[in-house]
Amino acid sequence: MAHALGGHYSLPHGVCNAVLLPYVLAFDMGFGEGLERFQKVALAMGLPVSLGYVRAAQDVIAHVQNLLRTVQIPVKLSELKGVDTRDFPKLAELAMHDSCMKTNPFQPTLQQVIAVYSSAYSGLPD
C-alpha cells in the first residue's frame, strides 16, 4: 500500500509506511487468530499484556500513533499533501499487485484495501 501511495503522490516511502501502519494493524486485529501476535509486540514495546489480546492490540496501535506524533509524522493520510480519496480504488488495485502484499499475515480483498486507505484518510477514533 505504501508503494502505491508514495509512487502516485511522490511521497517518501518511510512516511507512507509509518502513516499506514496503525491502520494496517487495525485491519489485522480483525482476525482473531492473529491477536496473540499483538501480545508479543506489546510485550516488546514494554506495554502491559495482562489485559488480554484485544487490549494488547489496541495498546500497540495507540502506541504507534503516539510515536508518530512524537516524531512529527502525520497520523492520517489527509495530512499528506495531495492525497485524494478518489484515487483509493486505483491505489488499492496497484497495492493488490505489489509483491509486498503477500507478506501480510492476512490477505485483504480489493474492497478491504480501499477501506484501509479510507480509514487512514479519516483517522482512528481517539
Q: What's the CATH first level?
A: Mainly Alpha
Shape: globular
Quick one: how many beta strands?
Answer: 0
Corresponding CATH architecture = Up-down Bundle
CATH superfamily: Dehydroquinate synthase-like - alpha domain
Radius of gyration: 14 Å
Main beta-sheet annotation: none
Task: Describe what you observe in this structure.
It is a single chain. With 126 residues, this protein is mainly alpha-helical. The chain has a single domain (2-122), classed as Up-down Bundle (Dehydroquinate synthase-like, alpha domain), CATH 1.20.1090. Helix content is 60%, strand content 0%. It contains six helices and no strands. The chain has helices at residues 2-9, 13-29, 35-44, 53-70, 88-96, 110-122. Helix 1 runs antiparallel to helix 2 (13-29). The longest helix has 18 residues, at 53-70. The protein is globular, with a radius of gyration of 14 Å.
Topology:
Elements: H1 2-9, H2 13-29, H3 35-44, H4 53-70, H5 88-96, H6 110-122
In a few lines, what is going on in this structure?
With 126 residues, this protein is mostly helical. The protein has six helices and no strands.
Please name the defining characteristics of this protein.
single chain; 126 residues; mainly alpha; Dehydroquinate synthase-like, alpha domain; 60% helix; globular
